[in-house]
Write a structure and sequence with these properties.
Layout (H helix, E strand, L loop, with lengths): L18 E7 L2 E5 L13 E6 L8 E7 L2 E7 L4 H16 L7 H6 L7 E7 L2 E7 L3 H13 L4 E7 L18 H4 L2 E8 L2 H10 L7 E3 L3 H12 L4 E6 L1 H13 L10
Length: 261
């Protein structure tokens, strides 16, 4: 069955509930409609062998089937979603007429983009900054974080500006329960701090592990203090707070402008 947060669960032709043989991520997988027979189209590009890193940090070893033969990739970015991204990139490159033989080296040189579980060194502490804007992206990040061997000190930051979206009901489709027992402490910040705190409470994160600090810089400092010397902080933030936090980090010399990296 697809995940609770799946975008599509019904046939695009007749609206019958789809039957899944397997769901790899959200609603993506092998499916068919029991009413009209609609199913996954024949794939020109497909990942036929995938070995994801067990520590949630990468790299992933992947074999992609293409019209020009198999391509072996080492993807330095973690997660199954980046296997999908790399497969799509190969398809786009081939359609545009680029030399596919150069793809493995190009993909192997990639680094996490701005806010995509971006690893940032903040003095003796390590920050992973993740931009999360919907249940699927949030769940993917939580799964990767859960695999990391470090203690789970966290900060969640939400804003209800027009660009972020005003309705945060989607938080209830985020599988926080899967990581709740691993959370050592969590700072909730931003204009939706109380809503994040309530969601964490209902996921059975103990109240004494949850704190609210609305102001972004003060919240960041509180979360970093929780990690202790040499610790790791996982920040999950919506769009506006991601930019706000990164500007703070830039001011402190921890990151450069994203276009300079």
């Amino acid at each position: 069955m697809p995940e609770q947060s799946a975008d599509i669960i019904r046939c695009v032709r007749c609206q019958e509930d789809l039957l899944y043989e397997v769901a790899y991520m959200s609603h993506l997988g092998i499916y068919r409609c029991p009413n009209c027979g609609y199913t996954l189209p024949k794939l020109d590009f497909a990942a036929t062998s995938i070995k994801l890193a067990s520590d949630g940090a990468g790299p992933s070893q992947v074999t992609i089937r293409t019209p020009q033969g198999n391509v072996e990739l080492e993807i330095p970015l973690p997660g199954l979603h980046n296997v999908y991204n790399a497969t799509a990139a190969l398809g786009a490159a081939l359609a545009a007429g680029f030399d596919i033989d150069k793809a493995p080296a190009a993909i192997a040189s990639m680094r996490p983009a701005f806010g995509r579980l971006e690893k940032i060194q903040a003095g003796d502490r390590t920050i992973y900054l993740a931009f999360v804007k919907n249940p699927t992206s949030f769940n993917l990040v939580l799964r990767l974080i859960k695999q990391h061997p470090t203690e789970k000190h966290a900060m969640v930051v939400g804003s209800n500006t027009v660009v972020d979206g005003e309705d945060f009901a989607w938080l209830w489709d985020v599988d926080i329960e899967d990581i709740a027992g691993d959370i050592v402490d969590v700072v909730c910040s931003g204009t939706k701090a109380e809503e994040f705190a309530m969601r964490l409470k209902y996921a059975d994160v103990p109240l004494d592990k949850i704190s609210i600090v609305h102001e972004r810089e003060a919240g960041l400092d509180a979360a970093l203090q929780n990690t202790g010397p040499g610790g790791t902080l996982y920040i999950m933030a919506s769009y506006t707070p991601t930019n706000e936090l990164r500007r703070i980090m830039q001011k402190r010399g921890w990151v450069r402008h994203f276009w300079e990296e």
